[in-house]
Amino acid sequence: MGEEAGLCRDGRRYLGFLLGLTLVMLGGLCLVLAARGGDHFSAISRPGDAAWYRDFGGDGVTEIQDQDLFFHDIGRSIEHARQADIIILGSSLVSFAIDQSVVRERLEQPRGLKFYNMAFVGVASGEFARQVARKHHLHPRLWIVNADDGGGGGSFFHRNLTRSFGADVRPIPSVRLSRFGANYEVIRRNLRWRFEDATRDVRRSFAAPRAGAIPAFERDDRTGAADMRGFPRFLAEGNPGVKMTRDPDCHSTPDVITNARELVQSLGAPVVLTLVPNFHGCRTQVREIADAIGVETAMPARTDYSSWDGGGHLDRKGAGDFTNDLVSALETTSAFQRMRENDDRRQR
């Protein structure tokens, strides 16, 4: 009996030692991650610029961070969005099409306007962005909305709350999570991605990378900009221009117009509609919606911006050209001019 009791005590001491060692190691990991000063705890930040965080990735299963970060106000993104004079909304079309360096040169530096890109990759409907704006009281002086209808596959003015990466379509988890649950998911993803980074070379010596995997990308918490340089041919020269092949006799529907009116009213500030050119885009619908709900459009006349994927999304050159033209079109709108007139009055 005495010998058995001694073994039990030794076993408990050993388990206690292992538990203590584990806690010390986890504590050390937490201190290391916290000391990095990234956008959120455990963020995988860009070396030399902690405002950029890994937003999307995964070797086996692709996952995205920003839906949790924005919906639950984790990190600094919502804080910066609250400071914006102009916020643009849309899907991945906008994430690829807005060149932040052009925005800085054309709007921020000469005019002192803060611009924020609140597009969400994989989310075609504007309902998620609308809920984020209402939940966190975002009140820019001007909204720009990319009024895309997905080629008939889902309008920005639909009310669904789904996200899709290729054929993987599912409800957006963020809207069902508590803030604690969202923080858990953010940390879990970052730790998983760190483990994949550390073991990638070893794993690839045994098995080839997953075919068709979507490249990882980063997002800037200060501006909302996404860095898409990892996508094939995004940086290439000589990519073909977008060909908008859809029949221009494409029209909106009463339901879409009703939803658009309610979304614009919900945003609570002047709204200007635009359209990032893509092969399934319909400019007719944008004009019809704008006329029906009484808002302006800022659509560049040109549509043949270069694209890295055959006309679905713009490449780096296309984004630079489109952003320049978008700013020029925006400057002609009454909504933008009224905003500038108000600034002039304040300075007198």
Structure, explained:
The chain is α/β, with parallel strands linked by helices and 348 residues long. It is globular. 44% of the residues lie in helices and 13% in strands. The strands form three sheets. Strands 1, 2, 3, 9 and 10 form a five-stranded antiparallel beta sheet that branches. A five-stranded parallel beta sheet has the order 5-4-6-11-12, with helices on both faces. Strands 7-8 form a two-stranded antiparallel sheet. The chain crosses the membrane at residues 14-35. Keywords: Membrane, Transmembrane, Transmembrane helix.
Distance between the termini: 92 Å
Q: What would the average pLDDT be, to the nearest integer?
A: 89
How would you classify the helix and strand content by structural class?
A: alpha/beta
- Tell me roughly what share of residues is in helical segments: 40-55%
Q: Order of SSEs, N→C? A: HEEEHHEHHEHEEEHEEHEHEHH
How many domains? 1
> How many beta-strand segments?
12
So what's the oligomer here?
A: single chain
Strand fraction: 5-15%
Broad shape: globular
The major beta sheet can be summarized as: 5 strands, antiparallel
Total helices: the number is: 11
Rg over CA atoms, rounded to whole Å, is: 24 Å
Residue runs with pLDDT of under 50 for 5 or more positions: 20-35
Throw out a few tags for this protein:
alpha/beta, 5-stranded antiparallel beta sheet, 5-stranded parallel beta sheet, 12 strands
